[in-house]
Automatic annotation (TrEMBL), chain A:
<dbReference type="InterPro" id="IPR006311">
    <property type="entry name" value="TAT_signal"/>
</dbReference>
<feature type="domain" description="Aldehyde oxidase/xanthine dehydrogenase a/b hammerhead">
    <location>
        <begin position="216"/>
        <end position="307"/>
    </location>
</feature>
<dbReference type="Pfam" id="PF20256">
    <property type="entry name" value="MoCoBD_2"/>
</dbReference>
<dbReference type="Pfam" id="PF02738">
    <property type="entry name" value="MoCoBD_1"/>
</dbReference>
<dbReference type="InterPro" id="IPR052516">
    <property type="entry name" value="N-heterocyclic_Hydroxylase"/>
</dbReference>
<protein>
    <submittedName>
        <fullName>Isoquinoline 1-oxidoreductase beta subunit</fullName>
    </submittedName>
</protein>
<dbReference type="InterPro" id="IPR012368">
    <property type="entry name" value="OxRdtase_Mopterin-bd_su_IorB"/>
</dbReference>
<dbReference type="InterPro" id="IPR037165">
    <property type="entry name" value="AldOxase/xan_DH_Mopterin-bd_sf"/>
</dbReference>
<dbReference type="GO" id="GO:0016491">
    <property type="term" value="F:oxidoreductase activity"/>
</dbReference>
Automatic annotation (TrEMBL), chain B:
<dbReference type="Pfam" id="PF01799">
    <property type="entry name" value="Fer2_2"/>
</dbReference>
<keyword id="KW-0408">Iron</keyword>
<dbReference type="GO" id="GO:0046872">
    <property type="term" value="F:metal ion binding"/>
</dbReference>
<dbReference type="InterPro" id="IPR012675">
    <property type="entry name" value="Beta-grasp_dom_sf"/>
</dbReference>
<dbReference type="GO" id="GO:0016491">
    <property type="term" value="F:oxidoreductase activity"/>
</dbReference>
<dbReference type="GO" id="GO:0051537">
    <property type="term" value="F:2 iron, 2 sulfur cluster binding"/>
</dbReference>
<dbReference type="InterPro" id="IPR051452">
    <property type="entry name" value="Diverse_Oxidoreductases"/>
</dbReference>
<dbReference type="InterPro" id="IPR036884">
    <property type="entry name" value="2Fe-2S-bd_dom_sf"/>
</dbReference>
<feature type="domain" description="[2Fe-2S]-binding">
    <location>
        <begin position="92"/>
        <end position="164"/>
    </location>
</feature>
Amino acid sequence: MSADLSRRRFLKVLAGSAGALVVGLPLAEARADDAPLPPGLLGDDYRSLGAFVRIDADGAVLIGTRDPETGTGGATAVARIIADELDADWQRVAVLPLGLGVQNRDGQPAWTYGHQRGGAGETVPAAWADLRQAGALARWLLLQAAARQLGVPADQLRAQSGLVIAPDGRRLGYGALAAAAAKVAPPPAPVPVKQPERYALIGQPAGDADARAIVTGQLRFASDHRFAEELVAVLSHCPWPDGTLAAIDTAATLAVKGVVKVVQLRPEPSQPLGQTVLAPAVAVLAEDTWAALQGRDKLKLDWKPGPSGGENSADLEQQAVALLDDKTAAAVRVRNDGDVDAAGKKAARRLEASYVLPWLAHATPEPMNCLVRLEKDRATLVVPTQAPQQAWTVVRRLTGLAPEQIRIQVPRVGGGYGRRLDHDYVAEAVLLAQAAGRPVRLLWTRGEDLAHDVYRPGSAHKISAVVDRKRNVIAWTQRTASASALARRGVPDDRLWTSEVAADQLPAGLVPSYRSDWCALQSAIPRGAQRGMPHLSNAFAVESFVDELAHAMKEDPLDTRLRLLGEPRQVALGDGHVLDTGRLLNVLRLVADRIGWKQNWLHSVNGLGLACWRIGDAYVAHAIEAALDGNDLRIRRAVCAVDVGRVINPTGLEGQVAGATLDALGTALNLGVTFKDGRIQQHSYRDYPLAGMAQLPREVEVIVVPGENLPPSGASFLAMPTAAPALANAVFRVSAVRVRRLPLMRELLRML
Amino acid sequence: MAQAQGVPAEPAGRIVPEPVRAGIELEINGERYRHTGDPSMPLLWYLRDVLRLTGTKYGGDHSGADLVLVDGKAVPALAQPMAALAGRRVVTVEGLAGADGSLHPLQQAFVDEDAIGCGYCTPGWLIAGVELLNRKPRPSDEDIDQLPVLCRCGCHARVRRAIKRAANGGKA
């Protein structure tokens, strides 16, 4: 890729005046400085060096990571990739977020580090493509410096764990070599990266690089940062995105000690969703959080609904179901292989079922917040964002500052799940700082967070399949209806389906005739990206339906799946996507074997369920064992197998797979957002009950397929899609209740 | 002004008598403090805004991210008005490690098990887990099931392992 090559070309070597070696991408401003700051004095200014790697004279290694860390382990994995190429001593490595890298190129932004996005499954694959070079270059420079110092050719030296070792056993630490290495002329061509047999860190387990800071409470999330002279802002949003403020009385609020100001905010209708305020809001600005919250409680606000005040989630669901049943309804044809209509005429058997998925909130542990300081020629922000470049766009538009005058720090983020790809809260904070003339620390309360989200839209899925006499699925028709998460974001109408359904999702490519249609629903409730979408909802429908097919044919669902997948082979799905049925079969067999499928499926008093899926080049399967005691559903076992290609950090991967499994199970069991008269009905964790320990399996048995021959894939949400259908399939076995609507517990208790 | 409220109270035993000062005296992580602001202010904001002890997080009611130990009991700091804390001993996540920086066995177990997702709810898990271990050094799975912390990253299984590891003297 050209971006990788250009980045390699621009890797720079800098000398720190206290003998540090820096390999990275110097910012325009850093170049303009008279002299680099001594590393010991760099403090928080290490960012100005744009460093990917810095080696200090004392041997300490600092690795900067460009993508926001939202808890997916990306920062640790990327640092290990770089540190391995460097042959660094991991004990001496500190990992720090670089924040946004932006320079001014004729008034336009030039992104110093290329694409910066976290929690979207891109961090590790992107780093694999380009950041190994930063570590390799630093190692090469250190070896050259050592060669001169030891009088031994560099190719006879070896690097290991922060040391350069000569054939005669002499050793030099990286710290002692850093100053000299910074003076070595970099090579004209990229340095070759390591051969896999030399990996020392890649593939080895490591805990999160921030673990110690987190368990001691020292790690500062964005909401833990402070600016001098700041005001704290809390908000009361209008229940309707298109509503209006008919009356406001702020007297009691302004009488609260510490309250400074009340400011009204309105969405800018010309702006795409996510780049402006989500709904009209009244902000209370105060000297501290408690004063702001008390002031907010005393606001007297009379909000009037807009047109969305007539919306009900129950009505929308009925519309969706009606659309699916109406074959003449307008629909986008997402995929059309073969001829499903012709195949239907020679049907031995036809099966049809519909599934309904609820709206979902993000419920990030750290609520939306943003710290802003505006000066005449500078904006400084601390933002929990997954996409700092999009945050920059919002700040730029609202302030008119030059590209490099906007500084965005992104400390570790308290959960993203797609919510922080949008920056309505950044717009709010900037507008409030402008209104207040002081730095502002915006904090959303949980109630605001749940009731004013960019929700995962609910959806309905109707699937019908035609099976021939040999039990082969010869035709598959899927119709999906939802309100696109891409609406009001400048996406053309004919691409709105892409957030709702994947054109190459299972079983596309496996059945001769396959058709997928998507029907658009309209809604004013804001919608956006969600962890694991669109796979999360589609896998539930598809993998539940495969299980229904098996039961309709009175056979073991594992056998049905094996027949559907067929022989191990590469199936071209179009647009360069390939389904490797061998890899999918493998993860499926692994979970089936681990849970003892063949021995237990028919005979266990508990229910067993299976599901498998593909996301990009990664494969996943779940096997779940569920027990029912009266109305009490217990998930006894959860087994998940993944094939992500090369594994960078097995500990991190296992954590992501187990975590996504538990998140998906908890979500499937309990969670749904509803709205009545246009108002969201969930305002606290009482209404939106994330599953606690007692509802979840005690362990997740994670099986990782070794994949040394393939580049690494992102894995943070890979285990989301299959957990819920495997659970629903297990629930069917144990209860004879087929749950076709989530959340599962409500539906199960209704049908038991 | 907010800063001034955060200064540790004077050590006892001064010779010159001082006038009786208003305020709520309490102990936080072994240090004595006097809160002279609004008595109805929840402990969470006193910790975060006044003392700048930001390890205890805001996650909303029932999130568990704001758990602290008050006289050894894990309670949400959001639901504790300062007025109720006179003379109480509060321990936050910052107070779990030893004075020499040595980690509490449960903190070490969280590191060893990598029981961390985004890390935002981790202080809550630690406080809840420490209370449980103090109450019941060998907690059962059912005991662990009751921990009142919400987590979207899905760290539950690793948290469970970490608590068992700490209960087992640091061994998995």
